[in-house]
Amino acid sequence: MIGGGLGAVAVLGLLGAHSYDVAAHAPVAPTPAPYDPTHPSGAAPVVDPDPRWTTSYVDDFTGTKPDHWYLYSGKPSSGPGGFWDPTHALVRNGELLLRTTYDGTRWVSAGVARTAAVPLLYGKVQVRMRMARATGVSYALLLWPDDEKWPPEIDFGEDGGGDRRATTATLHMPPDNAISQHGLAADFTQWHTVGVEWTPGHIDYTLDGQPWASDSGDGVPSVPMHLALQTQTWGCGLTFAQCPDWSTPVTTDLEVDWVVVQGWRGP
Fold first, then answer.
1. CATH number of 21-264
2. The model's pTM
């Protein structure tokens, strides 16, 4: 998914060279997280103690609003089937909720983005999330360039509004949006920790602490980037996403229990 920057412009499937590996990966064996009943997902934030990483921020959404996050607003410039409203980004009961609703005339969703205090040039990101099935309501977890000059973009978890039985990871590479894309089968109506480890010349995409796909080479971004989380609906007739239909719930939340962002110190 293209978008998620502080300018909040989203497009999916722009033309470019493509390298697809969608649905080629079997489910990975997760690393069990110690049960923690104080968190909605049953797992506390996991900060990697490896000295290669330094903690940038941890947010487990214990407040009453999404403090420190930029909130999307308005119509995506290249996704006219959607609309973002800042009031749809909620913090309740220890969770960030990115809520999509039908207001009687249109579908309205939410998106947030957060830059690190120290610019994130390489890093490790983990997002503890789940999302109910809702035809036509998509989500994206991504890294977007701080300077707003796209591409590059690293989508480390997204779907086009399907049944949540799979996710994709997509690397958008400069200068012409060459794309490397991978797919993974898993049930994302259940809690998972979706992540990415981005180091010089290499990216590992992770699920529940285990790598499941990777990209390497000159196309790996080498500019500061920041985390963005978003939900969106799309118009009908597109090849890369579904549109809402009669079965789509009036309200659907992307639930995020916590986020951990760590910077790269080097080998």
1. 2.60.120.200
2. 0.91
Residues in the chain: 267
Q: How far apart are CA 179 and CA 159, in angstroms?
A: 16
Residues 102, 238: Cα–Cα separation, whole Å: 20
Please state whether the peptide bond connecting residue 175 to the residue before it is cis, i.e. omega within 30 degrees of 0: yes
DSSP 243-258: ---TTS-SEEEEEEEE
Pairing of strands 18-25, 178-185: parallel
Task: State the residue for tokens 């990415």.
Answer: 196
Q: Cis bond leading into 200, ω under 30°?
A: no
Dist CA 99 CA 174 (whole Å)? 32
Task: Measure the CA–CA gap between 203 and 155, rounded to whole angstroms.
Answer: 11
Q: Which two tokens stand for residue 119?
A: 């610019």
- Residue 14: pLDDT band by 50, 70, 90 thresholds? very low
The pLDDT > 90 percentage for the chain reads 79
CB 15: neighbour CB atoms within 10 A?
A: 8
| Distances in whole angstroms, Cα of residue 109 to Cα of each of 73, 141, 230, 233 | 9, 15, 8, 7
Q: Which amino acid is at 203?
A: I
Are the C-beta atoms of residues 225 and 115 closer than 8 Å to each other?
A: no
**Contact by Cβ (8 Å): 161, 2:** no
Give the type of residue at 139: Y
Residue 73 structure tokens: 């607003």
